[in-house]
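Fold this: DUF308 domain-containing protein
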Amino acid sequence: MLYVLILASITLILGIFQLFSAIRNRGSIIWGLLLVIVPLIFVFISAQSVIKTAHENNQSVANTSLSTKKSASLRDNKLEDISRASKSSSSQAQKALDVKKNLAKSFKTFGTLTYDADTKTYHVSPTDKDTKKVFKQLISNPDQVENSNFNDIEDKFVEVSKTLKKDLGSGYALELDQPDQTNKAMLIIKDGKTTYNMFS
């Protein structure tokens, strides 16, 4: 749910950006309001879930630490190392797929999410018509970036990347692709740091 919270926050920022853009361009604000209200609901619900999960995890860690100490003394260290090594590779791949599912749900209103296991990269491709239009305007007029919320989007992507590093380890990247061009990035964040920003 932490991913949902972070990505709902990103979508909320994008919705605010869309709402201001619609107001400034004297367009319809219905879509902008929808992109503000729905993520706001998700932020509220997922924040409650994250708090509840954190509390439950603290209790389970306390309970399992005692049983882990007892069972660890009964195992042979060499067999435990072999078992851990074989489980870690399969569980790491499963974790990456689980993260993809959570991220895809969170980015549903913003765009599509794909995962490239070879490069350990999560690609976010905007599919919302208005968001694509705004990004295309920024690409054609980069001087407008300072007046937009693109830096806020970058900050939220950095937060998601830090969470990826915490949950999956180093080497995983989060990439925001240009509209209709999945092979060209606007933003690449890896291990919580911006490695590429087309506007910098």
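The chain has a mean pLDDT of 79. The helical segments are 2-24, 30-74, 77-106, 129-140, 150-168.
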